[in-house]
Structure to design on (762 residues):
């Protein structure tokens, strides 16, 4: 009886210790908002359609007829260094190196009405306001700031499809809500193609906006509801004068007119407010229609209880964050859970509560049996984010793959997405990395759809001859430098993707496909110049380009990287690469040089995605192509150097401060690298079921898997100095190789690292 009671007591203690923790305080959304992180600090829910966040300036993409380089700082709409806020818009990318969105900017003001944003040097010249970080709070699912010039406290929260605003006003008979329908991120004069607004009554406004930007044909519908009737309203239309004026001119459309249309519109809504009075707004979005936007609002937030919506948003975040519970220092917990938060922002759900969404064909589709997603930054996220989802969000990643296949079905080009958002492909970056995501999901048993059809879509995409040198790649085995400015990196990325197709074909018993793509996967060898030991552009006649600099990131045949980093991009076959580079010792020495060398600023001055903050020696962690490189020491027989480098990168590139990210978070890829690496393992080659081992920075991590199993990582004798691994046990049995498999994790159990302060050479 005593033994039984002790067993029950022990199980109870375990249950309590594993109960849901309040992890929201460890999420600091301001991390990455300064310098190069390009994250946003506002309110969203996990994978939410709405990202309600402050925008801190209105720079145009165009300046004197050319690209305005300063706009790059505003990819997320907000820059921590700024001193003013122009308003709060409802759609944002997290961590990207290009941009769009910033839809439906709301700004509360009081005093004389102003319908221009003014300038940062003189915020009172427009509706913008000065603010102080001392009066700013950013949490998962909640944002608050005092707008100093208007004496208004702004609070934001969100549901999946609804942004909820709460503004506390002073006493005034000149209180206003500005709705700026011209505002956008990466904006320019003609970006807005058309806007329509319908004032339904004194508390409800609906409409839509169509833009032509990174997404060529993007339409977003809205329904805006006020908690208090406005006493009057109006608009200012800044459209360029046209010869044809139509007969709408019969009406005075500037004030209290309910049917509004144009390209360049700002609206205002007037109120009388008492001291401390709260005016609340709900802005619901839809990809399909105004009616659906209103239905989304009524389904998700049918009430006016701001605290209830905030509490649900934070409960949703807490549920997701608790999928991994760690024991670590307070600083590491902030880094860990903020990274986990950033990994669970994108991709975003893209459909209404009734399952409707707009497809790539611009038609309305019904998502049958899956949730439709958008925001696929695949050149970045195939590396670690989607593999992380296969581990911690498999049901969602299954739906993401189905979303990609729906994209393929709707495409007149019959191609899988390259970089897609809002029913468009913007074709940004290189490779056809949907292939990697699909293959990884199929091989790991995550995808439950028609895998043969998925493979056919991958094959069709990889054979689209007129896309970015694919024809030359198929015919010659490489892309000539004369045909493409990123010929080498494209060749390398296609070769990796082709390896992914081969692995999927092998699993699906398509032997002919396997043989074809196994051979194509070796095309990386065709751009490796053995005479210098680097990847190098080749000309049409087969010779290597003579004018070549292995350090430069511009004009050398690579995208957002140089030959020093891309020469290690053969994640599908490190063993062969090692032989090409002279064997394990020379290969490891080459890696040593990469991490220790000096890369002068001039070699990346023309590449805005690469800055000094994200560079360690010549290794560029602030950009993605070399994210697997630190783990390659494992293949060279020197795993202790992988352990040392990984811990160095974790410490140098991730800090709990606004400037704490060494580069663009890129829709969660930088954060996903942190998540894997801090737990001690990393997917060097998605499309394989293998993870390379590194050096965990947490003392322990408990992963609650969707299959009901739990997998625990434990680091014995963990400390800042004990970065080396003495031995590793999987469920009590020693590992003889520095790797584990996906199946090992799914079975549940424990991975135990024994840490020491000295390299263990075997």
């Amino acid at each position: 009886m005593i033994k039984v009671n002790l067993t029950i007591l022990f199980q109870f203690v375990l249950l309590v210790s594993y109960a849901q923790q309040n992890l929201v305080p460890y999420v600091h959304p301001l991390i990455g908002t300064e310098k190069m992180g390009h994250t946003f600090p506002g309110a969203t829910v996990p994978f939410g359609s709405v990202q309600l966040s402050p925008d801190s300036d209105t720079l145009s993409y165009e300046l004197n007829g050319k690209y305005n380089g300063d706009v790059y700082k505003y990819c997320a709409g907000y820059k921590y260094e700024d001193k003013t806020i122009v308003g709060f818009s409802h759609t944002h990318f997290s961590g990207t190196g290009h941009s769009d969105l910033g839809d439906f900017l709301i700004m509360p003001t009081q005093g004389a009405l102003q319908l221009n944003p003014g300038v940062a040097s003189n915020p009172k010249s427009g509706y913008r306001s000065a603010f102080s970080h001392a009066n700013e709070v950013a949490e998962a699912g909640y944002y608050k700031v005092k707008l100093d010039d208007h004496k208004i406290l702004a609070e934001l929260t969100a549901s999946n499809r609804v942004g909820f605003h709460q503004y506390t006003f002073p006493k005034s008979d000149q209180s206003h809500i500005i709705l700026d329908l011209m505002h956008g991120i990466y904006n320019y004069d003609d970006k807005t193609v058309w806007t329509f607004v319908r004032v339904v009554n004194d508390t409800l406004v609906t409409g839509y906006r169509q833009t032509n930007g990174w997404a060529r044909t993007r339409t977003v519908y809205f329904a805006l509801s006020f908690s208090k009737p406005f006493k009057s309203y109006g608009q200012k239309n800044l459209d360029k004068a046209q010869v044809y004026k139509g007969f709408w001119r019969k009406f005075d459309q500037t004030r209290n007119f309910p049917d509004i249309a144009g390209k360049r519109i700002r609206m205002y809504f007037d109120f009388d407010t008492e001291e401390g009075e709260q005016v609340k707004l709900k802005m619901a979005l839809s990809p399909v229609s105004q009616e659906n936007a209103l239905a989304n609002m009524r389904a998700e937030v049918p009430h006016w209880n701001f605290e209830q919506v905030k509490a649900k948003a934070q409960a949703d975040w807490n549920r997701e964050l608790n999928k991994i519970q760690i024991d670590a220092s307070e600083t590491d917990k902030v880094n860990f859970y903020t990274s986990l938060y950033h990994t669970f922002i994108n991709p975003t759900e893209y459909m209404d509560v009734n399952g409707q969404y707009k497809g790539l064909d611009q038609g309305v589709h019904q998502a049958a049996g899956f949730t439709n997603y958008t925001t696929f930054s695949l050149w970045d996220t195939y590396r670690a984010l989607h593999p992380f989802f296969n581990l911690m969000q498999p049901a969602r990643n299954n739906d993401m793959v189905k979303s990609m296949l729906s994209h393929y079905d709707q495409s007149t080009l019959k191609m899988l997405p390259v970089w897609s958002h809002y029913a468009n492909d913007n074709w940004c970056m290189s490779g056809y990395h949907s292939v990697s995501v699909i293959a990884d999901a199929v091989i790991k048993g995550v995808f439950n759809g028609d895998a043969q059809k998925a493979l056919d879509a991958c094959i069709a995409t990889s054979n689209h001859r007129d896309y970015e040198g694919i024809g030359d790649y198929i015919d010659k085995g490489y892309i000539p430098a004369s045909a493409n400015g990123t010929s080498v990196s494209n060749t390398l990325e296609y070769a990796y993707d082709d390896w992914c197709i081969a692995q999927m074909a092998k699993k699906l018993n398509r032997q002919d496909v396997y043989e074809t793509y196994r051979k194509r996967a070796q095309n990386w060898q065709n751009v490796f110049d053995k005479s210098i030991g680097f990847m190098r552009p080749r000309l049409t006649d087969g010779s290597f380009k003579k004018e070549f600099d292995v350090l430069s990131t511009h004009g050398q045949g690579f995208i957002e990287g140089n030959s020093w980093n891309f020469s290690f991009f053969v994640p599908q076959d490190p063993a062969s690469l090692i032989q090409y580079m002279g064997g394990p010792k020379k290969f490891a020495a080459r890696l040593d040089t990469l991490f220790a060398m000096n890369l002068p600023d001039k070699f990346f001055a023309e590449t805005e995605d690469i800055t000094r903050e994200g560079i360690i020696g010549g290794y560029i962690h602030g950009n993605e192509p070399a994210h697997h490189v630190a783990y390659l020491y494992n293949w060279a027989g020197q795993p202790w150097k992988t352990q040392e480098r990984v811990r160095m990168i974790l410490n140098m590139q991730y800090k709990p401060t606004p400037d704490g990210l060494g580069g663009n978070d890129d829709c969660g890829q930088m954060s996903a690298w942190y998540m894997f690496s801090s737990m001690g393992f990393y997917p060097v080659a998605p499309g394989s079921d293998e993870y390379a081992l590194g050096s965990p920075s947490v003392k322990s991590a408990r992963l609650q898997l969707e299959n009901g199993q739990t997998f625990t990582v434990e680091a014995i004798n963990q400390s800042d100095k004990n970065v080396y691994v003495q031995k590793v046990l999987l469920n009590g049995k020693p590992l003889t190789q520095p790797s584990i498999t996906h199946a090992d994790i799914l079975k549940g159990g424990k991975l135990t690292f024994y840490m020491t302060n000295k390299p263990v050479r075997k």
Observations:
- The chain has 18 helices and 38 strands.
- Residues 487-507 form the longest helix (21 residues).
